[in-house]
Design a protein that fits this description.
With 145 residues, the protein is mainly alpha-helical. It has one domain (2-24, 59-144): Membrane associated eicosanoid/glutathione metabolism-like domain (Four Helix Bundle (Hemerythrin (Met), subunit A)). Helices cover 81% and strands 0% of the residues. The chain is elongated, with a radius of gyration of 18 Å.
Length: 145
Amino acid sequence: MTDLLSQPGMRLYAVCAAVLVLKMWLTGNGTGLLRVRKGVFISPEDYAVTGRPAATAPDEQVERVRRAHRNDLENILPFLVVGFLLAASGASYGLLWWLFVPFTLARVLHTVFYAAAMQPWRTLAFEVGNVALLVATLALLVRAW
C-alpha cells in the first residue's frame, strides 16, 4: 500500500476518495439524525418504538437529504472504481487533478445545494461532476484499450 501511495496520482485519488466517502457518511447519518429529530420515520416499527402515530406525509427536508445521499450512491461509487483504476493505470497527474478535484468539489457542492434547494446551482454542480466522471471513464477506456 505504501508503494501505491508513493505515486502522486494515487495520493490525490486517496484524498478525494476519503473526502467523498466522509461526505457520504455525513449525508447518510444526517438523514438518520433528521428523521429522529423530526420524528419522521420510514418503517411502522420505528413509530411503534417511539409511541408516535405514523406521519401522513414525508418530511421535505429529510427527503432532500435522503435524495442527495441516493444521488451520491449513483455517482460517487462509480467514481471510486473508475478513479482508482485510472490512477493505478499511471495516467498523468495533471489529468487526474483536473478530473478528481472538480468531481470532488462538485459532489460536495451538489449536496449543499440540494439540501438548501438551490437551483440552478444544484444542476450545475451535478453536471460538473457528471462530465468529470464521463471523461475519467473514457480516459480509462482509452488507457485500457
